[in-house]
Amino acid sequence: MRRHRAEKREVTPDPIYNSELVSRLIHTIMERGKKAVAQGIVYGALKEIKKKKKEMEPLEVFVQALENAKPKLEVKSRRVGGATYQVPVEINNDRQVCLALKWISTYARGRKGVPMSKSLSTEILDAFDNTGSTIKKKDDTHKMAQANKAFAHFRW
Q1: Would you call 105 exposed, middle or buried from its count of C-beta atoms within 10 A (0-12, 13-18, 19+)?
Q2: DSSP letters of 58-98?
Q3: Is residue 4 part of a domain?
Q4: pLDDT-based confidence at 155, cuts 50/70/90?
Q5: Which residue(s) pair with 78 in the sheet?
Q6: Is residue 139 included in any domain, yes or no?
Q7: Where residue 103 sits, what CATH number does that domain have?
Q8: Per the count of CB atoms within 10 A, which of 3, 31, 125, 134 is most buried?
Q9: 15 falls within a domain
Q10: What distance separates the 2 farthest-apart alpha carbons in the chain?
Q11: Model confidence over 3-26: pLDDT tens digits?
């Protein structure tokens, strides 16, 4: 028997930009509890964005990039009568942000031979311009949901 759902924790805003989204990005980038290293990477990336996009605030660029990278639909596996169907479901806002941050950090890590802060800034700028790996992943997710629209009646 299942008990109660775990309640959501409050994310404390980061000290420089006073933004919960930047704080969540830092937590997504962080490995092995090294928060100072993750903060250095994220703040370095935001400085890099400030250099490249002089007319805009780096926080605005980051928020817009995140908005562009957020998926609206995803597929979930449902077993019905011995067969497994990929059922398209809409995603709530918190999970949309979580997936977008995860994709941005994953594809930034995938760029080898470049410092992490530089690759993160490049990935954010690509998402801002609606190009790059993160946007491709979002489009692939939407295509998969579109292709399995026939199984939408299994959603419950």
Answers
A1: buried
A2: HHHHHHHHHHHH--SEEEEEEEETTEEEEEEEE--HHHHHH
A3: no
A4: low
A5: 85
A6: yes
A7: 1.10.455.10
A8: 134
A9: no
A10: 57
A11: 898 888 888 999 999 999 999 999
127 in Cβ contact with 134 (< 8 Å): yes
What local confidence, expressed as pLDDT, does residue 150 receive? Answer: 81
Residues in the chain: 156
Instruction: From 149, 6, 21, select the one nearest 94 (Cα to Cα).
Output: 21
Domain containing residue 107: 20-154
Residue 109, both tokens: 């890590």
Which is more confident, 107 or 86?
107
Q: Distance of alpha carbon 3 from its chain centroid, rounded?
A: 29
Query: Does residue 37 fall inside a structural domain?
Result: yes
Q: What would the two tokens of residue 125 be?
A: 């700028």
Three-state SS at 37: helix
At residue 156 the predicted structure's pLDDT band, cuts being 50, 70 and 90, is: low
Enter the pTM of the model.
0.89
| Count of domains forming the chain | 1
Contact 126, 132 (CB under 8 A): yes
- Type of residue numbered 27: H
Four-point Cα dihedral 42, 7, 95, 88, nearest 10: 160
